[in-house]
Hints:
Order of helices and strands: HHHHHHHHH
CATH class: Mainly Alpha
Radius of gyration: 17 Å
Largest sheet: none
Number of domains: 1
Number of strands: 0
Structural class: mainly alpha
Distance between the termini: 12 Å
Amino acid sequence: MACVPRGTARPGRAATIVAGLAVAGSYLAVSTGVGERLDAAARRAAVRGGSPRVDRVISVATDLGSVYGLAGVSAALAGAGRRRLAAEVGVAGLTAWTGAQAAKPLLPRQRPYELGTSPRLVAPPAGSSWPSGHAAVAAAIAATVLPELPRRHRAGVAVLTGAIGLSRLRVGVHHLTDVIAGFGVGVLSARATRSLIERWCDRA
């Protein structure tokens, strides 16, 4: 990976603090049960309306937050000549996915379709519902690329990232608090990845 000088754009300290609070707050909300009303309201809103055609599109688009989506984004960046950014996105995304999977045993939780509260529109995922690995990967990608994008493109990427997270409610595999925690894990992973790159640059 090409060396990146210290001070290059990265997720800010405020974003890192908010991400940490999102993970901790989500954990407490789920473990104490205080987040149940929020999750129920979000779930009802997510499954309301739509059509079979829309659901098919969402069922495909939700995988933009998967490791396959991550590979696609990294390949597209590399093809566009942004190899350093492509590598950083790949590392940040894999870190987010690994972190989310490692955190699942900390809070065993059934998924909405397992509780019978939402229909399942995708293949059954493995592991606990909390946190959302797809939301984590999507947030890690966004947090890595957003600082390097022109301002006119940042809002679109942020909206897409939010849509990927919310799609996990629609397809019946996550609660809103899972997605919030996943976003936090993703941003923290992007920050950690950049910190490691800067340390490597200092040594190099």
